[in-house]
Amino acid sequence: MKRSFSPLVRFVTLFISLGVTLSSVLSGARAVDLVEPLVDSANSRWFFFNSASRPFGMVNLSPDMVTEGAWNSGYRYKEDRIRAFSHIHGWQLSGIPVFPTIGEFKGHLGSDTYGSRYSHDRETVEVGYHQVYLEDGDISVELTSTTRVGFHRYTFPESDACQILFDFATYLGPGDTGPARVQVVSSRELEGVVEMIPTLRRPTPVRVHFVAQLDRDAEAVMGWRAGRLIGEVQAIEGEDIGVYFQFASNANPVCQMKVAISYVSVEQARRNLAAELPHWSFESVVEDSKREWDELLSRIEVEGGTLDQRRRFYTDLWHALLGRRIVSDVDGQYSDWTSGVQRVRQVPLNTGGQPAFAMYNSDSFWGAQWTIQTLWQLVYPEIAEAFVNSLVQMYKDGGLIPRGPSGGNYTYVMTGASSTPFIVAAYMKGLRNFDVEAAYEGLKKNHSIEGMMARAGYEHTTAVGGGMRFYVEKGYVPYPNPDGHLTEAFHKDGSGQTLEYAYQDWALSQFAMALGREEDAALYGSRALNYRNLWNAELGWMWNREVDGSWHEPLDILRYHNGWVESNAVQATWYVPHDTAGLARLMGGRAAASDKLNESFEVAKYHGFVSSKSHDKEKTALNRRVTINYGNQPSMQTAMLFNHFASPWLTQYWSREVVEEVYSGVSPYYGYSGDEDQGLMGALAVLMKIGLFSMRGGAAVDPVYEITSPLFDRVRIALHPQYYPGGVFHIECEDNIEGHRYIQSATLNGTPLEQPWFFHRELVGGGVLQLTLTNQPNRDWGAAPHQAPPSLTD
Question: For position 232, what pLDDT does the model report?
């Protein structure tokens, strides 16, 4: 099924290349058909690229050009060989690589030998579908999937020696392959299990069970061990092994294969297969995938802008729903590894006997308060609520609410208790179908010396890298951490940790307040002011404090790391989202804070608001000496701070500048300019382009949204009827033409809106936000101090 662009799309593309805005031409196009999966794929990370995948799919089947490493691996647009088609691309997860070949079998010699050249000229990449032509074998490969089953269609040339191999002797993504066991069920079917060994970040193994079925009989199933062919097999097990179906294509060139997986057992993989893919209609699975994606993507409809802006918008939205993976089976069984050994557990069932939610594998929620937290809880509340349930269930299993679970275990990725604002904000927005008492209990533990905050990045066996004993006693985490020598944890950056903890403490204080826990609310509310302990008035920035209270030397505010989690002092100083008014007072008032931040943006404009256009270059020490970095989480909120500093016209100006420079275009070579981190940048781009943001992540008792000028003329947000009563919320922009990025005036449901924010409850009640845009800033609109968004110390 080679797909080609229609004459209409070619016509539109021609005019877009001439700079003509033709959004009306594609007004009938499905959102899913506007997504460009290849954006930034030249800089791909193992879990970044997706094609044959459902939303949050356990299976995400795609080509791998580079098979080793968590970074610069998987699908890499500029690489010239494909070495595998593997089924799992998740946070510290990989598994089940397959490959079709013909002629003399060379699979036992490794993917550098059996892999094939390919060309993008003979490749089609769409949401839910991937087709590529293998030049060395003259084989067309087509891929699609259900949530838990990969579906392959191979078209072979005429040959009496065709093979489909399963390579369990290869390094795959973040980890090496361990022992495997394969049983030949019939001439059409294999079943088995492979162990993906522990990694630096995932401390326990992951066992991937699978069932593979062909739609034809193989002549034989052959195997190899330790690089040597061993002939026909009925069963094989051990390390460094592989198997392959062998057959002739003379009578029928097309062969289809289904591969179902489970992290629990072979029997569960078979149940997943029976439930999700009982037929062999490849085309119907492709279309089912597109329909499922389109339902989610079309919850936000945009009009106006250029075709490329709309294509990029839906690509961003698609990314926001991608990288975090379902790890429970169709009936709700899942593997719990929190004790160090596998325990099979069952998700609670609803009244209909179905799993009440799914369990998820996820990179950190670090920075999620400004990204997926805000987007999911507004547009996809059922997904956000499922994630909350999954996090709380893991607390019941293992004793901690995770900040980045992988393979049923904790990874302790990044720092702090980043799940706290996610769970608190869900509760504040009415997403309360979870065990609230258990959630509160788990979050409170996480904010103690026994919890998640006590562990810095990947600190599996100790709990000192987080510096919690100092934070509790002194009100800050010193840098350097005097206990740092006791652990090899990453991110032992006390100042960055202190700022993060203060915000998360504020979120927990809001939860305590909502639940009537007054003593806790006072405790965590007091700790939320700990950011003040880092303010160096003489320096004019937040700075590192030694354990004795003195300022750390040398004073280098642009030095990356060294006290700051993936940032520097200039970037991290602005990380006080819960008390922007208090931060402004430290700087001499709102006007002074605005001027200081504006100066950082003026400098950052010269380096494109990022460290580099790709992650590998972003890591160099020189490139990291920047004032603003929209290629990573710590700077994501900065453009929106001007709303809080009585200069909302600067939010309107700089947010558009960032979108145009960092989050525009549909090139495979650029797109996110750093670490996209499973939808965090995609979600941020979506929010900036529709003109909504939430500085505090919605974790306040009465959450609010701040606004800026949207990229599009009209935005329509369909509100989930089971959670929000309003039906639809519209954002409409008058005079949204080239150069018009400033809000002249605004109304909310016909009433003048004189401030750059409004309440969540107003949005989910439905209605219309009407904005009139001009090419000159209105320095009076929303600029009075009392019109700034709420802040802790206001």
Answer: 98
- CA–CA dist 82, 75 (Å, integer): 8
Task: With beta carbons less than 8 A apart as the criterion, state whether 423 and 391 touch.
Answer: yes
- Distance between CA atoms of 150 and 86, rounded to whole angstroms? 9
Q: Is 376 helix (H, G, I), strand (E, B) or coil?
A: helix
DSSP string, 422-433: HHHHHHHTT---
Whole-angstrom CA distances from 88 to 57, 94, 258, 323 are: 9, 5, 14, 11
Q: Distance between CA 628 and CA 642 in Å, rounded?
A: 14
Three-class secondary structure of residue 17 per DSSP: helix
Q: Which two tokens stand for residue 254?
A: 């097309």
pLDDT 10s digits, 60-104: 999 999 999 999 999 999 999 999 999 999 999 999 999 999 999
Helix (H) / strand (E) element for 551: namely: none
pLDDT tens digits for range 437-464: 999 999 999 999 999 999 999 999 999 9
Rounded to whole angstroms, the Cα distance separating 336 from 404 reads: 14
Q: Mark out the alpha helices in 528-647 (DSSP H runs).
A: 569-572, 580-586, 590-605, 615-618
* Residue that is written with structure tokens 């119907």 in the block: 284
**pLDDT at residue 620 above 80?**
no
Distance in angstroms (rounded) separating the CA atoms of residues 747 and 394 = 44
Element of type H or E holding 280? none
Predicted TM-score (pTM) of this structure:
0.95
**Rounded to whole angstroms, how far apart are CA atoms 83 and 97?**
9
